[in-house]
Amino acid sequence: MDSTTSAELYRATRERVTAAVRGLDAADLDRQVPACPEWTVHNLVSHLAGVAADFAAGNVEGAPRPPWTAVQVDARRSMPIDAILDEWAETGPALERVILGETTSNPLVCNPWVDSGTHEADLHGALGTGRRPPSELWIGTLEWLLSDPPSEGVEGSLSIVTPDGTYQLGSGDPVAEARTSSYELFRAVFGRRSDTQVRSWTWSSPEHADLWSPEIPHLQQTDVALTD
């Protein structure tokens, strides 16, 4: 994806999340995020602001592993949400300038909208406010992640067909096909769909659902059915 589109996707996501969170009361900010059960809504926004600050400053060592994100959350644990959002309003544009300046080839820094868009969906799932990330974000994420599809744990080639494109997982001869929406696949590739939810997709044969390996998601697959 070109840098201009990447920066714009990130900016738009940042602005939507800010609008969704600013003004929430203490009870909503303290809600557990089902997709990130160790985090509250406040913690999730702390992470997003922390990512912007770290990426803009070039602090990428350890990203995106849990110890790296834990520092972001802990540093902002006692900060009011408005202060965190004000910080993000400064560090977010700084990160966008890094993207537009094309001074790094780090794929996480160049495409922060993937993480922020995933957490935007997590946020609305926690608040019960529906699906908000635009389809261009879902589709862009799938094109980016599945252009080099995971093959570990996948025997043969699994085709996943969405209204917006077909994605091949694994290698070798095609052995199965699944049909679902782009949004559901977007959530599944980051572990936000349980095995039961994945099996509810339309499979060429029910037993072919076994081809969806827990090794496919880029983050640990949830054990519970998430609604977002």
Structure, described:
It contains ten helices and six strands, in the order ααββααααααβββααβ. By secondary structure, the chain is of the alpha+beta class. The longest helix is centred in the middle third of the chain and has 21 residues, at 81-101. The chain is globular and about 50 Å long.
Outline:
With 228 residues, the protein is an alpha+beta fold. Helices cover 50% and strands 12% of the residues.
Quaternary state of this entry equals: single chain
Helix content: 40-55%
Q: Please count the beta strands (DSSP E, at least 2 residues each).
A: 6
Q: What proportion of the residues form beta strands (DSSP E)? A: 5-15%
Calculate Rg over CA atoms.
18 Å
Give me the strand/helix succession: HHEEHHHHHHEEEHHE
Task: Provide the descriptors you would attach to this structure in a database record.
single chain, four-stranded mixed beta sheet, 12% strand, 228 residues, two-stranded antiparallel ribbon, alpha+beta, globular
Record the SSE blueprint.
Blueprint: H1 3-21, H2 26-29, E1 32-33, E2 36-40, H3 41-57, H4 66-75, H5 81-101, H6 107-110, H7 112-127, H8 135-145, E3 157-162, E4 165-170, E5 174-179, H9 182-188, H10 195-199, E6 202-203
Parallel strand pairs: 3-5
Antiparallel strand pairs: 1-2, 3-4, 5-6
Helix pairs in contact: 1-5, 1-7, 3-4, 3-5, 3-7, 8-9
